[in-house]
Amino acid sequence: MKQLFLYLFGILISSLGIAFFIKADVGVGTTDSVAVGLSSHIPISVGVGMMTVHVTVILLNSVLGKTIPSLFVFIPIVLRGVTLDLWNFLLTDFQLESLVLRWGLLFVGIAFMGIGIGSYLHTNLPKIPVDELMQTLMKKDGLSLRVNRNLYEFSLLVIGFLLGGPIGIGTFVISFLLGPSIQFFYERWNDLISPTKERQYASTS
User: Fold this and answer.
1) Whether 161 contacts 171, CB under 8 Å
2) pLDDT, tens digit, for every residue of 95-143?
């Protein structure tokens, strides 16, 4: 029951963080930019656009790794899409005119993403499958996980830009600060859940 709570809470709060990125309107994450860009060209919601991006990652990993994906990997993708659409709907009329407040909202979003992802990384339930793709690419091209992740993020940045997604200075701020935010809150959750457990390093998308 505790794992289920951490999992659902984590996805719900991290989706709110993404919704805050969109509302701040100073740039969103690279994956989010593709989702928003898709929703501006075809009649789908941002949440469905997000699901489309992650399903594409699963299929690409399946082809490269010559494996058949488990149906369980689609659970977090559907939850991410549904919760993101829920927050976007609830925040429809929420607007901030002040640039200072919008930047503040972006930083709150980074914190919420760290809290949420740090939470659900402590469960054994299915995760969003970007890291699995990075491992597959590493085996294929011989490059490090960090290099492959940077190439992946850059590719999404280009696609998001071409689709007219909200790329901005905030996009680069998110790229630099999201990882440290996840690490910080992962360790705080670690202290709350297992105070005596040895800390581990965790990373995600």
Assistant:
1) no
2) 999 999 999 999 999 999 999 988 988 888 887 777 677 767 777 778 7
Q: Would you state the torsion angle of the CA atoms of residues 100, 83, 158, 56, taken in this order, to the nearest 10 degrees?
A: 170
Burial class (CB in 10 A: 0-12, 13-18, 19+), 29: buried
CA–CA separation, 35 and 137 (whole Å): 23
165 within 8 A of 33, measured Cβ to Cβ = yes
The model's pTM is 0.85
Note the pLDDT tens digit of each residue in 148-180.
777 888 899 999 999 999 999 999 999 889 888
Spatial CA neighbour of 48 closest among 2, 83, 3: 83
The backbone torsions φ and ψ at residue 63, rounded to the nearest 5 degrees and listed phi first, read -70, -45
Give phi and psi for 53, each to the nearest 5.
-60, -45
